[in-house]
Each structure stands twice: as structure tokens, then as C-alpha cells.
């Protein structure tokens, strides 16, 4: 195995361990892109919000904020 392939394999294993750690945590953790689109949501979100991670993937942070609250909440969600 060349060093690049070995590094890629090590990166994949590290990412898998990190995801397993997040998914086993009771805390809710989410990762979104600069546009606020949810790319990763941990399993802990279900106890907090009642949605499964799969239900939230691809949604935006503001999808769960009342329209009349967007002006007040959006600055708090700034990246």
C-alpha cells in the first residue's frame, strides 16, 4: 500500500471513529455548510427535537425557526 492510500484509509477510520463517538453521545451535534444546510446531525437530536437525523439532513438551520423570528434568530446562527 502506498503512503497516500494508507493516509486515505487512516482518514476514513478516523472519521468513522469520530462519527461513532458523536452518534453515541447524548448531546445533539450538527454540522452545516456556510449556507446553513445541515450536513451531519447526531443521534442525540432525536431526544431534543423529536426528529431523526435523517429527517433533518438537507434542511437549513432556519427551517425550524418561526418566520416572524428569523430577523432575531438568524444573527445568532451566523457561522
Please describe what this structure looks like:
This protein is mostly helical. It has 4 helices and 2 strands, in the order H-E-E-H-H-H. It has helices at 3-24, 45-49, 53-56, 70-73, and strands spanning 30-32, 38-41. A two-stranded antiparallel ribbon has the order 1-2. A hairpin with a 5-residue loop joins strand 1 and strand 2. The protein is elongated and about 55 Å long. The model has no long low-confidence stretch (mean pLDDT 86).
Jot down its keywords:
79 residues, mainly alpha, two-stranded antiparallel ribbon, 4 helices
What is the topological layout?
Blueprint: H1 3-24, E1 30-32, E2 38-41, H2 45-49, H3 53-56, H4 70-73
Antiparallel strand pairs: 1-2
Overall radius of gyration: 16 Å
Q: Which sequence of SSEs, written as H and E, runs from N to C?
A: HEEHHH
Strand content: 5-15%
Record the strand order, biggest sheet: 1-2
Biggest sheet statistics: 2 strands, antiparallel
What is the compact description of this entry?
The chain is mainly alpha-helical. The chain has four helices and two strands.
Amino acid at each position: 500500500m502506498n503512503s497516500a492510500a494508507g493516509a486515505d484509509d487512516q482518514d476514513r477510520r478516523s472519521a468513522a471513529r469520530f462519527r461513532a463517538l458523536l452518534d453515541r453521545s447524548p448531546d445533539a451535534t450538527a454540522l452545516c455548510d456556510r449556507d446553513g444546510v445541515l450536513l451531519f446531525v447526531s443521534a442525540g437530536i432525536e431526544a431534543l427535537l423529536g426528529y431523526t437525523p435523517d429527517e433533518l439532513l438537507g434542511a437549513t438551520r432556519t427551517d425550524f425557526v418561526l418566520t416572524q423570528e428569523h430577523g432575531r434568530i438568524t444573527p445568532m446562527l451566523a457561522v
